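pls read this protein:
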Amino acid sequence: MEEALLLKNQDRRFVPTPKAFVEELKKVTAIAAPMVVVTMVQYLLHVAPMIMLGAYGAEQYRKLGTYTYGAILSLILVCLPISLLWIFMDKLLVFFGQDPIVSLEASKYAICLIPSLFPCAILESMAPYLRTQSLILPMLLCSIVTLSFHIPLCWALVFKSGTRVSNELGAGNSRAAQLSVCTVMVLAVAEAIMVSAALFCCRSILGYAYSGAKEVVDYVREMTPLLCLSIIMDSLSAILSGIARGSGWQHIDAYVNFAAYYLVGIPLAFAMGFFQNLRGEGIWGRVVTGTILEVILLTSTTCLSNWQEQANKARERIFKGRIRADKLIDQLN
């Protein structure tokens, strides 16, 4: 039965048309737009405490402590209903029409995140409290210690996937996965070109946002073309890395990233910035060189990939895990 399904999906033909491109663009936008809102809200969450904690500058130390304790207590109270929501995440997702297997995996992931909610509530309040008083050393030491544990744990436990590509590969739609790749690439290039064009056109006045000194304004104008190139390459790099993760090429992405930045980009940046006395321009320019190399390597990997073979492998992995997932769903019911 499994082989029949694989053959059936292998025979499917997906013809890319302008209408299909528009439909895929709508799907990608539906995913990306909420993520943009989330990013903006998260940024505002960090800005708002800094505004509130201006009490320190006014030497209102008691009020500063009251704000901090109140923020910690409020966030901890909010964590309680969020925890309950995450515990019953599988039933909630199924109620809204999500696939039971996906709902189960999402619930397991959400439950694992619950222990981090309450420490995060304290951290989000204490970090602005320390920054306001310029107590950076404790934050630095804590970050270094945390990072030393975080990196090996990530390598051991991380499980990533690119949303649209992995979904289509899992469904056996190799042509649809290719269309998704093309759509996202076009969207990323268009966005990067628009942003870069706007910055390049404003390069002569952009420096005044930082200083009225002519030296600063001139230096920003000189660095703006490099900034534009960096924006374009970073956009392509982010998209191609997401495609690699969604296709199950995490190991290839890791090797490419290591080679492009740590073997090429960073050594060149160090040499050009310090030995050739190019300073900021040399450092930044050679890091962008590493990004360009990463884009070239990931683009080659993506173009040379056999998408039907990747779709078949994804389907095989799904079939192997379906029996175990069905048993877990029966236990929940």
